[in-house]
Design brief:
451 residues, 24 helices, globular, mainly alpha, single chain
Amino acid sequence: MGLAVLILMALRGVNILVAALVASLIVAVTNQLGMAETLLEYFPTGPLGAFTFAGQFFILFLTGAIFGKMMSTSGAAASVANAITEWLGVKRTILVTVLACGILTYGGVVLFVVIFTMYPLGIALMREANLPKRLFCGAVALGAGTFTMTALPGTPSIHNVIAASALGTDLFAGISPGLVGALVMFAGGMAYLEWQWGKARAAGEGYESNQRDVEMEQLAPKMKHGPSWQMALVPLAIVLGTILVPRLSVAVGLVGEETPMLGQLFTFANSQPIVWPSFALVLGSIFSVLFFASLRERSMEALGAGANDSVMPLLNTAAVIGFGGVVTQTEGFATFAQAVIGLDLPPLVSVAASVSVVSGIVGSASGGLQIFMQTFGETYLAMGVDPQALHRVAALASGGLDSLPHSGAVIAMLTIMGLKHREAYRDIFVVTVLIPVIATIAAIGVAVLVY
């Protein structure tokens, strides 16, 4: 009942904070949970409480949103997108969109900043290429919300960080299955979107403007006066380099624990999946201010706006996890947990199934992954599942059923672009649900061979 209410309210556009709380109360009433315990413990502060999660990951959300705002305000994010457009041309608008979104998100720019950056630029591309808007929406979803979110090793995404924090791994865990999963998602998503574009051209379907396009296109001229694309890539490279260098240096034996100065620093970096990526994002923000003259006078404004932008994504995710925290207190969830563990399936298949179901229930990959790690993580480790394989397979699986119609991210993207579920969700479903599920299966196959 609670889940049905959560999904219904989300689809009707009810604020997710309100929807999660109402759904939690319904779960409490229908499962004879104490009202006081639900409101004051299970939902806010329990092991899976909303504010337990918010407190743990606040610094990552904050620094990520600030870095994204710095890249957006300076025009650097738009410069990267424009450069890719010039290289590949408008005839490859889908590929341009996917690559631009992928580069920005892998470099640490948060999803919603990427959407607000790409959308105004994409309007001109869609118009010139006569690309249906639903396919542009699918391309943004593919580039910003799939392979860079859960699959590519080293990404500072919250999903990668959640898995590393829970399992004691690092952001590069499960390199082989991660790369295979990323390849399947990218190639499969591109093939589907290009196929659909061909069908659309044959049927005479093309770009149709709506009121949101008129409003958002007004932002595009402001974004054109940014730095060169070469300079725009520097902060992204700094973020990724700060994360990559300690891992690679230790892996190839250039730096060990006894190495003067760098030894302890790199050991610290590789053991801190939340603090170190946050530090990398801070460095990226600082260098953005130093490198981009257009940003210096507005740096405090961008800092404040970025901090504000971090609040709602953090609270929305936390609220969903708080709902999950209430659900985990019920007898029904205990039965579900026992059934999952008791399934006669290979352990990694069982992992993928359970993560997918939980992510689908809460409509959030990060929420589902956090709930899974807190509830099942130790159990699977005790069963002998390799932490590296568990990290990557669980992260990949969280990014499948999370994008069902009630997903907050899906609803937000459609709202931003002025689209309805009936217009664009089919394409979003294929690139963010169906193909990621296939990618997870492929990654499991690789993980079984490697670990």
